[in-house]
Amino acid sequence: GENILSVNQLDRDCIERIFAVAKKMEPYAKKQKRTNVLEGAILANLFFEPSTRTRVSFGTAFNLLGGLVRETTGMQSSALAKGESLYDTARVISAYADAVAMRHPDAGSVAEFATGCSVPVINGGDGPNEHPTQALLDLLTIERELHRFDQKIDGMHIALVGDLKYGRTVHSLSKLLCHYKDIKFSMVAPDGLQMPSYILDAVDNAGHKIEIVDKMEGNLAADIVYQTRIQEERFPSQEEANKYRGGFRISQSIYNTHCKPNSVLMHPLPRDSRIEANELDNDLNLNDNLAIFRQVQNGVLIRMALFALTLDVADKVEQYEVAVPW
Ligand code: CP
What we know:
The protein is α/β, with parallel strands linked by helices. The protein contains 11 helices and 11 strands. The protein folds into 2 domains: 7-130 and 296-322, 3-Layer(aba) Sandwich (Rossmann fold); 132-294, 3-Layer(aba) Sandwich (Rossmann fold), CATH 3.40.50.1370. The chain has a 5-stranded parallel beta sheet with strand order 8-7-6-9-10, covered by helices on one side. Helix 5 (109-115) links the parallel strand 4 (99-104) and strand 5 (121-126). The two termini are 34 Å apart. InterPro entries: Asp/Orn_carbamoyltranf_P-bd, Asp/Orn_carbamoylTrfase, Asp/Orn_carbamoylTrfase_sf, Asp_carbamoyltransf, Asp_carbamoyltransf_Asp/Orn-bd.
């Protein structure tokens, strides 16, 4: 019955328990097996900011466990546009739903909503603050990708590249990596978009090594290269955002020149295809080490695990298996 609002709630034991349940979900996500363990349960999927994969994968994860999904999409189509408070919205939704997944443009908004909510609330991204389910799926992806090369998270080198200031996924991921040992971080961002100091302090206090650099050249030879989108919607003005357009683009030629032979390329997505040069160029699409669509698959597993754990059915998934008729 717990909320998942921030990665600050999670220690290494919690992370490993979530990963163990996530891996158990794989045959259900692949539809080799079916379970109705959440039959009759209703998820309120409340998205007050644009989303494709987080919204759809929360809904898919709940459906794969046998539950039903109701959703709002966008601030303007909800009563928040009429001035309703998050607290009142939460009291109302508590009367209908058994769990809530929520995204909102303001930092702290999901936690505020949770104060009025009597069912578990999972944060699907609150402004520039946190995106805990993305961080968990990223961490699971890192573990699985490194495993292909007999490597572990402990001792790895990760380069975080792009908009580290507004990119909430790299904030949450960096905090989760504080539970691991001897990691080298390369924070690769233009001066105006570097990682906030509170995250740098947390990473430093965990005993990790940090290099802060303002260019990609010579700084991408990492086991994991994690690129983020320039978060234009969070900039004070479009002119400010335009300054960074097209910079920090990783193409196959940059990969060949500056990455390691098997650097794994990650990105939370979406890639902004409106920008003439993608952050992760389309010419990488057939690169075996491009893990971006494997991240998406791991996202369903993580969200299934979090629903099963917060609704206390993680040990009953097999008991409620049903036949696959197709
Ligand atoms: N990674 C991510 O949060 O994507 P969406 O904005 O499409 O949900």
